[in-house]
Specification:
By secondary structure, this protein is mainly α. 76% of the residues lie in helices and 3% in strands. The protein has ten helices and three strands; from the N terminus they run E-H-H-E-H-H-H-E-H-H-H-H-H. The protein has a three-stranded mixed sheet. Helix 1 runs parallel beside helix 9 and helix 1 crosses helix 10.
């Protein structure tokens, strides 16, 4: 079959989780409820940080930016899923596919970098508490967020450029509910060996550096905590890092699941299920993880909700 030039392909088909008509209302309700909870939870975190002067600290500044990134991450894929289920269509335009994957990698990489920045913030707070206000000043905090956004934008454009160089045959069915470069590489008729190597290299850099930074920070944090003589001091230090460490494990575990499923499995739905956890469930759980054992967030949310009621 003659391959078509990429510019002649007008749309792709997103197969989603299931083609069974009886399951579509259930899937619609599941995605809609998770999306609404994600939006509400992360917006409450942002509003609580903005409205409460006690939360105007570097840690909660980064947390509010993480919530904003989670909102963008979920909003890139879920509304399109809801629209396709509601309209009984599965298509996404070629340009829409490129835009979607650009924003997915933008917010996904931003999530990863912000988690690294938050690990550094905890490292400074625990290992250098006396110098914390001087080191984590507002100018540095703003600079770290801006650099994270710039790097994330660069990463997203690299993935967009790799996909834009591909050519496809007539089979343009993506076994997922969003456009993902590994899945698109599987559909390409052209030689993707160079693109695949480049994708692994980019992933190793933009994924490996944040992971290395987080591991380094927590190695130093654990070493510092173990030197604390009192058990109450150790417990307090572990509590301040517990929420962040839980989010880190959840984010990278689900990201690894999506990555491995796209590499090992081909057009099957196991990758799509892993993608749901990564793109929808993780952003939905982050606000709950940070608010469950954080008394400052809980008090700020209670004051905010009392003013709203």
């Amino acid at each position: 079959m003659e391959p078509q030039n990429l510019t002649r392909i007008s749309e792709f088909l997103l197969l989603g989780l299931s083609e069974d008509p009886e399951l579509q209302p259930l899937l619609f309700g599941m995605f809609l409820s998770m999306y609404l909870v994600t939006m509400a939870g992360n917006l409450l975190i942002i509003l609580a940080v903005i409205s409460d002067p006690h939360l105007h600290t570097p840690m909660y500044f980064f947390l509010s930016n993480l919530s904003l990134a989670d909102i963008g991450f979920a909003s890139t894929a879920v509304p399109k899923v809801l629209m396709n289920i509601h309209s009984h269509q599965r298509d996404i335009s070629y340009s829409g596919c490129l835009i979607q994957l650009s924003f997915l990698y933008l917010f996904g990489c931003l999530d990863s970098l912000l988690l690294m920045v938050m690990a550094y913030d905890r490292f400074v707070a625990i290992c250098h508490p006396l110098h914390y206000p001087v080191i984590m000043n507002p100018r540095l905090c703003g600079f770290l967020v801006l650099v994270s956004i710039f790097i994330s934008f660069f990463d997203s454009q690299l993935h967009c450029m790799m996909v834009s160089q591909l050519t496809f045959c007539t089979d343009v069915e993506i076994p997922s509910f969003f456009c993902d470069p590994p899945q698109l590489f599987n559909l390409a008729c052209s030689d993707t060996s160079t693109n695949t190597i480049l994708m692994y290299l980019v992933g190793a850099i933009f994924g490996g550096v944040p992971i290395s930074g987080i591991l380094f920070s927590y190695t130093r944090i654990v070493s510092s905590i173990l030197r604390v003589p009192s058990s109450s001091g150790k417990s307090k230090s572990f509590v301040t890092c517990g929420s962040h460490l839980s989010v880190v494990c959840l984010f990278y575990a689900t990201a690894a699941g999506v990555y491995l499923s796209s590499v090992v499995s081909h057009p099957v739905r196991t990758g799509a299920v892993a993608s749901v956890i990564y793109t929808v469930v993780t952003p939905m759980l982050n606000p709950f993880i940070y608010s469950l054992r954080n008394t400052d967030i809980n008090r700020a949310l209670q004051r905010l909700l009392s003013r709203m009621s």
